[in-house]
Design brief:
The protein is of the alpha/beta class. It has 8 helices and 5 strands; from the N terminus they run E-E-H-H-E-E-E-H-H-H-H-H-H. The chain has 2 domains: about 90 residues; about 90 residues, no CATH class. Strands 1-2-3-5-4 form a 5-stranded mixed β-sheet. The longest helix has 19 residues. It starts with a strand and ends with a helix. Bound molecules: zinc ion.
Length: about 200
């Protein structure tokens, strides 16, 4: 078992199957992703491998460690890692937070919600289009040109949510309007985002 501590006091271990497939790139991506999740501080995460899906998370219904996700190493994206880690929070934030830690910010369940909260969390997770959030084909196919604006809309939608129950519908309709404004030029793509792509 490989153990690594990517800062924030998170301990990550891998299944033997995953260890065989693990690349330096995947470890680096996992480390960077975990830094965006301070809520997972002091928790243990076990990472397995999946061939058939991009990723899988076992949403915790009680705090039994380690938490468990599975990832596909081939074609791994930050978006997938972020999505699976957000699923962990969907379960965890329904539980009392561990002693000595600040209370968890509640996070709604559901796949689309998971995509929205993942994109909103960090630009890091904008390297690929999310799976469940609905968007026009042209936005998906030209994701790198739209990612920044979709992310901003996700942040806005989360704020919106306290007042409007239909925030997902609001968000998807705003995303659907994006192509009418034309794709942004490369110069408008945030610097950090273009570095990641
Ligand atoms: Zn999911």
């Amino acid at each position: 078992m490989i153990l690594l501590s990517p800062g924030m006091g998170v301990t990550v271990s891998f299944t033997p199957q995953m260890e065989k497939r693990l690349t330096q790139r995947a470890v680096r991506m996992l480390n960077q992703s975990l830094r965006q999740f301070p809520e997972l501080r002091n928790l243990d995460i076990h990472v397995g491998h999946t061939k058939t899906k991009l990723g899988v998370a076992f949403i915790p219904t009680r705090l039994r460690l380690p938490l468990y996700i599975r990832l596909r190493v081939r074609g791994l994206t930050y978006n997938t890692i972020g999505h699976e880690l957000t699923h962990l929070l969907q379960g965890l934030t329904k539980l009392p937070s561990p002693e000595g830690t600040s209370p968890w910010e509640p996070l709604p369940g559901g796949e689309t919600q998971c995509d929205i909260w993942t994109l909103a969390r960090s630009e890091l997770f904008c390297d690929d289009a999310p799976t469940y959030l609905r968007m026009p084909r042209t936005v998906r196919e030209n994701w790198r040109y739209y990612a920044g604006r979709v992310r901003s809309l996700c942040v806005e939608a989360i704020r919106h949510r306290t007042r409007h129950r239909t925030y997902i519908r609001w968000l998807e309709s705003r995303i659907a309007e994006l192509p009418e404004h034309g794709p942004v030029s490369r110069a408008d793509v945030p610097e950090q985002l273009s570095l990641l792509l």
